[in-house]
Hints:
The protein has helices at 31-43, 51-54, 84-101, 135-142, 153-167; strands at 2-6, 45-49, 64-68, 74-77, 105-108, 119-121, 129-131, 146-149. The protein is an alpha/beta fold. The chain has one domain. It has a four-stranded parallel β-sheet with strand order 2-1-5-8, with helices on both faces. A two-stranded antiparallel ribbon has the order 3-4. A two-stranded antiparallel ribbon has the order 6-7. The chain is globular, with a radius of gyration of 15 Å. The model has no long low-confidence stretch (mean pLDDT 96). Bound molecules: iron/sulfur cluster. Residues 6-8, 14-15, 50-52, 109, 112, 114-115 line the site of iron/sulfur cluster (SF4). This is DUF523 domain-containing protein. InterPro entries: 2-thiour_desulf.
Amino acid sequence: xxxxxxxxxxxxxxxxxxxxxxxxxxxxxxxxxxxxxxxxxxxxxxxxxxxxxxxxxxxxxxxxxxxxxxxxxxxxxxxxxxxxxxxxxxxxxxxxxxxxxxxxxxxxxxxxxxxxxxxxxxxxxxxxxxxxxxxxxxxxxxxxxxxxxxxxxxxxxxxxxxxxxxxxx
Length: 169
Ligand code: SF4
């Protein structure tokens, strides 16, 4: 199955701080979860994608948070600079790839203002998470692409097993 995956989860140094969020090296994940992650990577067609870089932002970059979680969305740096357009552009490019390549599922980094599928930071730069979706996760979801995060690998694996034949080209 084709899966769009946040580049930082694959170990690419594309995060705002120039680091990555590699599942394979993260001590918070058990060995069996890391094995499952590697199995998913090896058994599927992986499309690595970072919406913020695709949206024109640099590495490293200032962190940004969603400051308006409803339409019209707003994403700002802590100094108030508006970077909404970069986030929307990155989300649109992610959707374009999914539609062009017939990708029906994504594994995206939790809590990110682009990739978070369940929670994101509230916009006060105080580390507080709220129930909300990042711009890319939201747009993919709205267009029928099922989004999981790195804490939902078992659910993703189940989804792959259940839908493998349905989505096979
Ligand atoms: Fe990772 Fe997504 Fe942030 Fe890029 S935008 S660094 S892929 S969480």
